[in-house]
Records
---
Amino acid sequence: MNIITGNVVSPKGFKACGNAIGLKKSKKDMAIIVSDVPCNAAGCFTTNVVKAAPVQWDMKTVGNKIKGVVVNSGNANACTGKQGLKDTEDTAEKLASLTGVSAENILVCSTGVIGVNLPMDIILKGIDDTFALLGDSADKGDMAAEAIMTTDTYAKKAAVEIEVGGKTVTIGGMAKGSGMINPNMATMLCFITTDCAISKEMLNKALKSCVEDTFNMISVDGDMSTNDTVLCLANGMAGNAEIDGEKEDFEKFKEALFYITKKLAMSCADDGEGATKLIEAKVTGAKNKENARKMALSVVSSSLLKAAIFGEDANWGRVLCAMGYSGAEFDPMAVTIVFRSENGDIKLMDKGTPVVFDEDLAAKILSAHNIYIDMILEEGDGEAVAWGCDLTYDYVKINGDYRS
Amino acid sequence: MNIITGNVVSPKGFKACGNAIGLKKSKKDMAIIVSDVPCNAAGCFTTNVVKAAPVQWDMKTVGNKIKGVVVNSGNANACTGKQGLKDTEDTAEKLASLTGVSAENILVCSTGVIGVNLPMDIILKGIDDTFALLGDSADKGDMAAEAIMTTDTYAKKAAVEIEVGGKTVTIGGMAKGSGMINPNMATMLCFITTDCAISKEMLNKALKSCVEDTFNMISVDGDMSTNDTVLCLANGMAGNAEIDGEKEDFEKFKEALFYITKKLAMSCADDGEGATKLIEAKVTGAKNKENARKMALSVVSSSLLKAAIFGEDANWGRVLCAMGYSGAEFDPMAVTIVFRSENGDIKLMDKGTPVVFDEDLAAKILSAHNIYIDMILEEGDGEAVAWGCDLTYDYVKINGDYRS
């Protein structure tokens, strides 16, 4: 696997662009991705009962051959009643007419404020204008990654190359966070493109497996959005023999896709609203994977622990406490807790017994940006990793008046 | 029911006091309650897998006749290994020796920092000193209520009188919040005393029912403590015929107990760490009570909504969003959402359709201290009310460095 600098236009046959169409005051707010040829597609969507109009559209459309995707930021088109559904369809119809397909071959995503109908005159004109700017140079892909941002502080992109059956296959991706991020999933949009030839079934299988251990293992604030979507488009233009079963090529593709989803998911956690630190919580020795997942996620979701990490306070009791209410079964008297960073590591609880520790060393460890919390149990071989961020004054500020 | 100014010493035969024994720098940190005669007792405890030593002790002891309770703040005696269990037992033993009973007749509660063993020399001397101060005057009960506070900004007390079988029965209570408060239950300690004669079974039944709809319906930050405890002691000194079945007297007693638990629970939410507003979320017309409970709790637990209320921003989409990920089933297209306060009310979503609303009126409504959010569904007759508070800069500040 060869990690490259790139984005959604890195794979062959994809064009993209981002553009400021006027939904936000001055920032870019629309991105379009179009493939030269129709793609097999796969998607993972929010499990929130309240699904935004574009999520409802994509869930029924993603099984078709897909030509392109329109994304707007600034307005989530969520909780917008029947008008919202019509607006999504009209959005798809517009890009369809420009690309010579029907609306059912176009996916739509929206992110931003909830409960306000889309200004469709701006959207429709915006699609015309953005379509005219499409291209396959790296800067076009970068502009698309910028255009999907809401409260993100940086654009999130990743790309890798692998060799499949003697052909170079490229996978590129972009994502946006950064608040309302929680398992199953974030207010999180992620778009992955690849020129790999892979069947719809195998693409779906690979994406679901990767999302399960990456995007579904990050938390910023415990809120699960109405709009969360991960889409993956595969246009087959690398020319490899189509991956249609769980053979070696599939594993190779899945490993590369996992890299992309993990990198983008970690960026979303790292760039959580107001965050100053990335927290990686790892559980080993749990009864089973499900228990390990619950504990890891509970720890990165704990407001109390997140505030302690912001304050660089080694309040490890909050780790054990969050494990305790996670719903997982375990023996608290057999838990070992270690805090780590590039500045060292320190054991804080040893098999259920608190360790008298060096506060200066703890402070030094917690002064780093990336904080690793290891929870070592003795129940079985269940393992899981979750990512989150600290809780800061800026989180409150950002969300205290998001609409203005 | 006659609401009176009072506390845990209001019922006949209870003495209490609070005292600064040196666990905290200068504030009161120990409270003792003793009854003249042994009490029937009932308790509700945290469902966290990690239970602090005193919780483990109380769970096995609460079924005995109870003479008194020792409470310390400043140290939770949680995650303290086997030493913690021994320290709790020694604490009980000490008050037992002073009151002429055995350790099994004494309940113990602790609240404060997790993971540090109790300084037992200070605790044991503190019990001697505090015991010497016990009394049944109102100021003694007030001092006890102060002594159990951690980050609380005010002491929480309540008392009522009712008539049972021609006798005046009094119920008094005190509680402490105020962070790490979440269903099942808060880092929340609550002590209720009554001179009512009531069987252990009926006391238990009444307490569980009241806690279910009050303390288990508040949330400050979604963290569930290792120490949460509600205890109720009934010494029978009012002289009424013992309540031993679900007759009229029982309902009267339960109604009065409900008032006490509701008032104390709401105070805990209102005094949530850093809170500037109390949020009451009410669901009506849900499929059933369980669904209504889930939705109401999800809304008061949403960091995004809590930050919006702090910012006085009528971001009602976050209400629908939190209902959507609550785990409850409902039709989003049939939901009506109303925000209310003493300054008026405003409908923001009408049966699934967003309402264009007057932002000035919304701002005026949200400028009040008590904010009421009504969610009206059309699925059935399930109802529930939950209480929470806003998320503020001060929450982050308080929890960023709690230990120092």
Note: The two ends of chain A are 44 Å apart (CA to CA).
---
Amino acid sequence: MMKQQVEIPERLTGKLRIRKPNILVTNDDGDCEGLRMLLEVAKGFGNAHAVIPNKQRSAVSGALTLHKPIRMRKMSEDMTAINGTPSDCVLFYLHSGHYEKPDLVLSGINWGDNTGIGSILGSGTLGACWQAVLEGVPAIAFSLRKKGHEYHDKAVWGDREAIMGRTTEIIRALLPKLDKDNFFSVNMPEEPKNATIVNTNRLQRERFTTQVTKRLDPNGAPYYWISGLEKEIEPGTDADHVIRRKDITVTEVSLKLFAGD
Amino acid sequence: MMKQQVEIPERLTGKLRIRKPNILVTNDDGDCEGLRMLLEVAKGFGNAHAVIPNKQRSAVSGALTLHKPIRMRKMSEDMTAINGTPSDCVLFYLHSGHYEKPDLVLSGINWGDNTGIGSILGSGTLGACWQAVLEGVPAIAFSLRKKGHEYHDKAVWGDREAIMGRTTEIIRALLPKLDKDNFFSVNMPEEPKNATIVNTNRLQRERFTTQVTKRLDPNGAPYYWISGLEKEIEPGTDADHVIRRKDITVTEVSLKLFAGD
């Protein structure tokens, strides 16, 4: 367990407030080892509480649940699950009255990288960060390159201490760069080859070739699966760095992209 | 019914193809008058087919359904409903093998404007357009400033011919500007004051103040509604144009925003 107390810059927490920063931890996978690692890392920086979806909500983008009620279930002192999306988790934390105003949102650690432009829009992990900055709270998303679907198995996540150490160092490095208009998406290979972090906004256009597969149920009625096959990696892109060169990458997404003129 | 046959530029359909363009019409409200108007307008430009969510999917952003199967139901010769999101509709149209490759995706006409940065990420109507351009198909989203929730009532949509006429003119104006890296989000007031279309990328940061309202069910257990209250309109923004000045606005969103360097 790390014990460092890195200061979150005053411009984010407001001057003269002598208190520990409040940190919301969320993700799109629900309760799993990636979430628990990030929650523990967050506690090294301040008061951290996790509000997470009560089930797998990958690829849910910035979706909000406006047409049905949200139920909450407190799982432990530091963790609450709701029947909502990652963006719902952010709004619930901010506006339900159950928590103090957050200074920072951390989302992840996601099972699987979020490289490519499609992830900027489609990832639930990043959807939470979009929602956070729209509400004026800076955010960082963490995604770990992983294959397969066994994310519920704690044993397959890799070296816990190493991953938490890297995550801590990255948060330290990014804190001075955060403001209320941006968020950062961090992608980590399983075993980084290089200590330096690559800043890149050169994203692969599409990481996946979409497939729609038709099957017949036992009654003979058709149903379809939407899925994706990994495309070839484009040299020089975020995917190239993370997957082929085993670099850690950081991509900044700023709302100023849409501030016009 | 309009009979104009406006050419979709060759660079979008591919040279030497002497055929009518294929147009996918989708939305996030499901079957309603706004969808039917846009489908009829689309038929003035080519072969148009609607693939839509089988229920209301507002605010669903670019969410994809990867964890459960999709069922399709053909509603009529020109309309298919699936138990999916707007982005699912785009992928289903492109990859199920039931349709020819689309030259253009039209999404809407949405009940309610999609002004503000939050809509760029959160709207299901725009989510379909993001998905389309990620797949290399140009797209236009149409949203009509409306209040209330009676969108199922055909009578409350306003002057059908006037809305369809405006929509047709806007598509004509935008066709030469479309490419495989961008989409356009069009916002229309109910009764425009000006004939000119305002191009704006100066978006209001947040159009809504989020509220999370706690209630108790008949058993005394709490549940929560996530909702939003309209904020004051910021002068000079897209919302100012559409809502206060009654202008039609067009906002271009380009994937080049994320192409870096």
Note: The mean pLDDT of chain B is 91.
